[in-house]
């Protein structure tokens, strides 16, 4: 049985939002009800009242004059960096070595000749204006991810982030925000979304991660970026005939998800304290900064995933997505995103599930 099949048979899923794992019929029924209540009509190639209203809403919330809904973040960020580099007269873009574009997109920027990529900073830490100053190349763009997922959802100190924004302005570097988890970052900072985005020349946001939609992304910025971005959307095969299913799935729960973020962050702190009862577990960061963090274990990823599967098969509890190799040989880690599943799960049930998992993994 595959991990997906195991998870689908579980009565309790610990990480994430229920909407992302709910039966398809339930999701589609909720979308149909919302469409009926709001008299929704399909768009055609991204033109229609529903999609334009959602673009305007998110743009106003984040403090940008223009936005375009795109099917994927991969497309949105590639287009943003390409256009930014062209406008600034340099093909070089910088980002952290754990950046999604660098690690997970199979060299699309290079193989498709969009821009040249340089990395800045140390792998396990956030980067700042000092690292930018150490890069003496003429740069077209810099990408900054908030929070930085691959290192446990770390955020830079607010003052350091503001200093980086100022440094990019001074050098004439287009600063782009990888805001796949911007909603979580704003809650972590305790600041409005527009204040976080201020100083970023462009921003990408996702609608299937923290929002729990079916997919979709949005690129936001000045019209000088967004208008040609819509052209590149067509050139790169992203101009879907109808984007309405993705827009509806996000729009119908958007406000509720944003309102829920502070509660998810508070629950994260509670969960972190609970996990501190287990000496076999180490958290990164030790004090989570957003409602996402990594849990490190002194066993192999194979042992951890086997214990996860056994807990799922025997107890009907799905504890995490996948354990990955750690920096130390024989160690591993997994990610927890604290969403409405953990808001609903009591401490005793969680404590029992973790204890059983550790026993199965042989590291209790």
How do the helices and strands line up, and which of them pair or pack?
Layout: H1 3-9, E1 12-13, H2 24-38, H3 49-62, E2 66-70, H4 73-88, E3 92-95, H5 100-104, H6 108-111, E4 116-119, H7 129-133, E5 141-145, H8 158-171, E6 174-179, H9 182-189, H10 193-197, E7 202-206, E8 217-221, H11 223-235, H12 244-251, H13 254-275, E9 282-284, E10 292-297, H14 301-315, E11 317-318, E12 324-325, E13 332-337, H15 340-344, H16 347-361
Task: Pick out its properties.
364 residues; seven-stranded mixed sheet; 13 strands; 16 helices; alpha/beta
Write a short abstract of this structure.
47% of the residues lie in helices and 15% in strands. The protein is of the alpha/beta class and 364 residues long. A 7-stranded mixed sheet has the order 2-8-7-6-5-3-4, sandwiched between helices. Strands 9-10-13-12 form a 4-stranded antiparallel sheet, with helices on one face.
């Amino acid at each position: 049985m595959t991990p997906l099949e195991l998870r689908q048979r579980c009565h309790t899923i610990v990480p994430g939002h229920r909407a992302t794992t709910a039966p398809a019929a339930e999701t589609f029924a909720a979308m149909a009800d919302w469409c009926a209540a709001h008299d929704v009509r399909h768009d055609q190639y991204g033109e229609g009242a529903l999609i334009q209203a959602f673009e305007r809403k998110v743009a106003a919330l984040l403090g940008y004059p223009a936005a375009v809904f795109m099917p994927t973040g991969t497309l949105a960020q590639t287009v943003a960096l390409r256009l930014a580099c062209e406008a600034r007269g340099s093909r070089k873009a910088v980002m952290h070595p754990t950046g999604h574009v660098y690690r997970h997109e199979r060299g699309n920027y290079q193989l498709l000749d969009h821009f040249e990529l340089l990395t800045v900073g140390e792998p396990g830490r956030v980067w700042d204006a000092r690292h930018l100053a150490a890069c003496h190349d003429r740069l077209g763009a810099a990408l900054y991810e908030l929070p930085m997922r691959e290192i446990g959802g770390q955020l830079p100190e607010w003052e350091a982030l503001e200093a980086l924004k100022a440094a990019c302005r001074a050098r004439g570097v287009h600063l782009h925000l990888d805001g796949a988890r911007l909603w979580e970052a704003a809650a972590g900072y305790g600041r409005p979304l527009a204040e976080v985005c201020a100083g970023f020349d462009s921003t990408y946001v996702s609608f299937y991660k923290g929002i729990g939609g079916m997919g979709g992304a949005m690129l936001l910025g000045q019209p000088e970026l967004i208008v040609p971005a819509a052209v590149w959307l067509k050139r790169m095969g992203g101009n879907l005939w109808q984007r309405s299913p993705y827009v509806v799935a996000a729009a119908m729960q958007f406000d509720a998800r944003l309102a829920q973020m502070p509660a998810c962050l508070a629950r994260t702190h509670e969960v972190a304290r609970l996990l501190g009862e287990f000496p076999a577990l180490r958290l990164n960061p030790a004090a989570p900064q957003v409602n996402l963090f990594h849990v490190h274990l002194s066993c192999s990823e194979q042992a951890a995933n086997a214990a996860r599967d056994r807990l799922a098969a025997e107890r009907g509890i799905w504890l995490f997505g996948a354990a990955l190799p750690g920096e130390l040989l024989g160690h591993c880690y997994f990610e927890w995103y604290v969403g409405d599943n953990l808001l609903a799960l009591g401490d005793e049930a969680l404590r029992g599930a973790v204890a059983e998992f550790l026993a199965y993994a042989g590291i209790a």
